[in-house]
Amino acid sequence: MKFLRPRLGVALTAALLLLAVWTLSAPGTALGSAFQATPQPTPTAGADGRILYTVQANDTPWGIAAQFGMELTTLQNLNGWGSDAVVVPGQVVLLGTASQQEPTATAGPTTEVVATLTPETPGTGSICVLLFDDVNGDATRQETEFGIAGGQANVNERTGLASRTAATESALDADGEPVRTCFEELPLGEYTVSVAIPEGYNPTTAPNITIQIAPGQTQEINFGAQASSSSGLSLSTDEGRPSPVMGLLGILLLLGGAGLGFYTLQIRRR
User: Fold this and answer.
1) CA distance linking residue 43 with residue 252, whole number of Å
2) DSSP 7
3) Domain tally for the chain?
4) What is the value of pTM for the model shown?
5) Is-contact 83 31, C-beta < 8 A?
6) Which tens digit of pLDDT belongs to each residue from 219-252?
7) Which of residues 84, 99, 114 is at a domain's end?
8) CA terminus-to-terminus distance, the chain
9) What is the C-alpha separation between 149 and 240, in angstroms, rounded?
């Protein structure tokens, strides 16, 4: 019995240690729960329905998602982030959007009106394209430079969420501004925007651009094109007959040939 007592004491101590470790780590216990990460309450939506968070020091996309009980992919899609995106202190991050339902009266004798906020799916944005007649060729639209009809505007989301095409316009709105070709209710993401120039024009700006759109945002993109140059010497008239310029060129060529022949003859005589 004297030999069993030390062993019994060691076994009892080990059992108590195991019980303490299980108590601290088990998620179903009060102490275990204290060590589990608890998502913070979602910030209140603003007047425009957006729920925003300002990035703090040492924040990461993964940490923000965990902090508010979100999937990382959901946070990335809401903000148009790639898998390698980083955040910086002071940056405003979109956590979601909310819309206010119509007030509805509860059943029973009470007349209290209850309004609730219901989370929506991620918002959408718009892209409006203008193909303008860049008369002076400086790649910047002036107030007197208007739209070109007959071109084609295209928007394509990088991951294939959306792909749309529409014709460009030359009309003016009620304020005298060019009517843009707009693509509305586009899902959030990274878009390549491009234009196809109609025949008779040459581009004066890059034919495509890559942009990000955020919820409720409208991106306005300008592409320039200039009418093909009509300056220079015309070799024929509109009716297809040789022009006077063609005749003048022929005479100059003949005179040049004659002068070259005379010069060659003088060289031989010497």
Assistant:
1) 83
2) H
3) 2
4) 0.44
5) no
6) 899 999 999 874 444 444 444 455 565 667 777 7
7) 99
8) 142
9) 29
